[in-house]
Amino acid sequence: MNLEKVIFGFFIVLALTLNFAFFVGDMANPLYHNTFILFAALIVSLITTILKFGDSSHMGAIFFATSLVADIQLLVAAIIWGWAAHISLAGVTPAAMVTVVSVSGGALLANIVSVVLLVAETLSIRR
Amino acid sequence: MSKTNIYYVLLKRLRVPLITLILIYAVSMVGFVLIPGRDNEGNVWMMSYFHAFYFVSYMASTIGFGEIPYAFTDAQRMWTTVTIYASVIGWLYSIGSLLSVIQDPAIYRLRLESKFRTKIKLLHEPFYLVCGYGDTSARLVQALGQEGIRTVVLDKDEHRINELELRDPLLGRPLGLAADASKPAILEVAGVLNIYCKGVIALTDSDQANLLIALSTELFKPHLRLIARAESPEIVSSISSFGGNEVISPFELFADRLELVLTKPSHYLLSEWLTGIPNQTLLDPSFPKAGAWILIGYGRFGRAVYRRLHAAGIAVQVIDQHTDLQDAPSNSLIGYQANLESLQLAGIDSAVGLIAATSDDATNLSILMTARELRPELFMVARQNQQDNSPIFERAHFQLTMNRGNVLAQKVFSLLRTPLTRDFLRLAQDENKAWVDQLLSRIIGITQDKLPYLWETKLTPRYSPAVYSACAAGQRVPLKYVIANPSQRQQTLPIIPLLLKRVDTLLLMPDGETLLQPGDRILMCAPHEAYEQMQWATQNQKVLHYLLTGEEWVSSRLLRRLLSSR
């Protein structure tokens, strides 16, 4: 058992599950989407990215890229939400909420790719 | 060393500090979002993530704008106290690790190496790779720099490489890396495979390392020029056994010169003048009388000297303090200290010269000074081991001082810059004294009291386009016109053509009527000003036309046709 692999596997799967937890539910309704979960998903995704810092292997580079995509999308989702809640005069409208959730859906896709890669890598090594 | 990108290493080391910072920020923010605050009217007010991030950002960086948008409740203040300490510690830790990563010697070396690698890649001019930066290399690099030839220097010792930084940048400061040149990977980093690398010069202190450098160079690039220094005969023969390597043994080299001084003084002077570093003042030559010699120190250098002098039929009395010398000549004073008594035993009163050849400078100096008290007219040869002792050796004015650094640097410099010099001196070796003396007086005649400047004129489109195209077009180009004064063709510039090399034939002292052919290489000797004037003929078609025909060049084709039809 490789501790580094455990930690990385944990964070990458956690990023996916948190992201999913935020994403599911009525897209336009803020009740289905919790700010804490979005925050947690963003933090975990950032940590996943940093865990791949300086990994010069091919697989490492791909993981770095996909988790970077997830970071950016979650960050954009958080910024849109913050904008809607604090700056825009209309407040958190269903339209704004739909944008936030669909952008986080993009991050979900990136996280799914990461996990698929992780599974593929694990299967191909067989050790 | 593998081709590690230093940024990967840096990022890898920054993982933990960055994650720590993110976690501290996350926990602090969540705390502020959860703890209820109150607005100015006393209503419960929950901080949003946006406000929490804003507050934590300015608090953690100790900017501290205060409690905004509303004054904090006690619960919020308590949490703020906790987070202030946590975030300050987090930042200190992260910045501390970042600084320590940057200052880490391993990272520092990687950074230097990666900078060096980039510089080598950007080097788009011919250069020589010099391995080992000692006295010899320092002189060599300096002399090559003055000629505008770039060098790349490798040395194990970081201090020596740092010395490179102090050199005059106008002389093309050499690129240097502190690394072990005997490792093939290092040679590769230093650009041995680069197309601009003209040759490798192995001058490290260790014969073994020089052999390894020679081997790796041969395997990396089979036809690359390699000049190595080696002291033990076994290594000399193994380095010269493969490829076209040139091996120089400083002891043998100096012993050769000493033999030349004693047997053929004029030849010695000629080779000194032609291989010296240009523009130095010519020294008054002094030569020993015939007679018996005393040699102190029968080590590697002493043996090399003895062998030659003995072969030349010169009587040599050896003194050595070591008692375990098996191969010393039978009448030697073995086990004697070098002092007044042993000098007298060895017959200093009837000797003509004294060679102090021990590996200790103090011994060499003291015995020569003792002998000078007895017989000031003796011809004295000193072996100087330490470069630092140069000032005293110079002041002592011995007739000949063997300084390894100088001897080697001169030799390598002349091999690199004018390879034909070697061929010339070999041919001159067979000429008689009268021939050499005549040449010496001609050289003095043109250079006054400076060492002459030597160069090779190559008849190729690149080096002498004008002469090349004239020859290639079938024009008759006698040598005398190429070295004529570009503004007055009846006069000849003060240039002595020493040797002409055409394919495999060597022509010693070619005369003015020799017709030049494309591909010829001519070794010339002159004051530096004459070299510059001669460039007109080799580079400029119009000037060459005037020199060859005595007529001005007519550039317009129409005019030329009109004039010729008349």
From TrEMBL, chain A:
Any Pfam family hit: DUF6394
Q: Which UniProt keywords apply?
A: Membrane, Transmembrane, Transmembrane helix
So which domain of life are we looking at? Bacteria
Q: In the UniProt record, does the keyword Transmembrane occur?
A: yes
> InterPro entries recorded for this chain?
DUF6394
Q: Which residues cross the membrane?
A: 7-25, 31-51, 63-84, 96-120
- Protein name (Swiss-Prot/TrEMBL): Uncharacterized protein
UniProtKB/TrEMBL annotation, chain B:
Q: Which GO terms describe its biological process?
A: potassium ion transport
Residue span, Potassium channel domain: 20-103
Q: Which InterPro entries match?
A: K_chnl_dom, NAD(P)-bd_dom_sf, RCK_N, Trk_Ktr_HKT_K-transport
Q: Does the keyword Membrane apply?
A: yes
Q: Which SUPFAM superfamilies match?
A: NAD(P)-binding Rossmann-fold domains (SSF51735), Voltage-gated potassium channels (SSF81324)
Please provide, in alphabetical order, the Gene Ontology terms of the cellular component aspect for this entry. plasma membrane
Query: What Pfam families does the record point to?
Result: Ion_trans_2 (PF07885), TrkA_N (PF02254)
User: What is the name attached to this protein's record?
Assistant: Trk K+ transport system, NAD-binding component
- Look up and give the organism this protein is from: Thiothrix eikelboomii
